[in-house]
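INFO  loader      accepted 1 record
INFO  loader      residues=128
INFO  predictor   begin
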Amino acid sequence: MATCQACVLTCMDFRIQGTVSQWLHEKGLAGKYDYLSLPGASRNFIEEGKLNLVEDSYRLHHIAEVYLIHHEDCGAYNLGDLPVAKQLDRQRQDMEIAARILKERYPELKVYLAFLYLDGHIVEFSVA
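INFO  predictor   done
INFO  writer      dumping tokens
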């Protein structure tokens, strides 16, 4: 029987989809995750209904993990003129807010944060 291990919330940007898919496959998640691809990933997590979508995954598919994946030069953030380190800092704030909300509501969930550089490099962060 197939099980759903995780919910992945990433940006809809076509430039990152292949790298994200490969990274998830390398983590052993191929075929084991719900995939939410929305502008800005976890930006405006509650206001844009993204929390509700992750909660649907939890309720319907009994996920144990959530991956929040942001990326360099995200059009939803419109920060492309800033150095990548500044883009990462700004987006990491939103990832941490979303992670905190998820952990408050579902303490048993493991939440992972990642930032993808357009060269294919992915940096993972711990949830504070």
